[in-house]
Amino acid sequence: MTDEHRPHRSHRPRRAGPVVGWRAWRIVRERGTFRLRSAVYEQEWPLGRELEATCARGHAAPAPDCSCGIYAVRGPAEALRYLVGRNDPDVVHRLVGEVALSGLVVEGEHGWRASHACPVRLWIPPRQTSGFAVDTGEIARSLVAYDVPIHQLGGYEPRAIELELMAA
Questions:
Q1: Hey, which end of the chain has fewer CB within 10 Å, N or C?
Q2: Is residue 4 part of a domain?
Q3: Total of domains in the chain
Q4: Does any domain span residue 3?
Q5: What is the pTM of this model?
Q6: 19 with 112: CB under 8 angstroms?
């Protein structure tokens, strides 16, 4: 399975050019560098190419009668909910950003799920939501490998981040 699988209301799939939505990622340290991992599942986002959705049920993702696919929400406020969650020992931080969804895209109540996706712009909070400081400079230098603009946020509280993203 790829990405957030949960019940939803969906519409008929359609082929689309990029649809830009919002999501959060966990930042993990792997092999001496930082990488993006889905906020809920163990899916690592690849460098230099789109992430392609799969489904454990064996059909192409996303399917109208399944919850598979790569998720994005309509706005930053909804994505900020995923800055808090399960963190394994290799998770050093979380960030939010815009993501381009392409291929087969299914629209839902709060956003979309798609067959393909890649980050477009990323914003790194200066601290974890727990208040612990992290070296965002080191993280940003490592994440340039995704070849997208990376911005450092001034605040780390969800409301402060939301206001900053709305002004960006």
A1: C
A2: no
A3: 1
A4: no
A5: 0.86
A6: yes
Examine residue 104 and state whether it is found in any structural domain, yes or no: yes
Q: Measure the CA dihedral 70/84/79/5, to 10°.
A: 30
Give the structural domain span for 138: 14-167
Give percent helix, percent strand, percent coil of the chain, each to the nearest 5: 15, 40, 40
**Model pLDDT for residues 45-79, shown as the tens digit of each residue:** 999 899 999 999 999 999 988 999 999 999 999 99
- pLDDT at position 129 is 67
State how far the Cα of 58 lies from the Cα of 14, in Å rounded to an integer. 20
State whether the Cα torsion 66-67-70-76 is positive or negative.
positive
Report whether 69 contacts 115 (CB < 8 A): yes
* Any domain includes 106: yes
Residue whose structure tokens are 């340290």:
29
Give Cα separations from 59 to 11, 41, 78, 84, 98 (angstroms).
Answer: 17, 19, 28, 31, 27
Tokens 């911005």 sit on residue? 151
- The CA angle 22-28-33, to the nearest 5 degrees, is 115
Rounded CA separation 64/67 (Å): 8
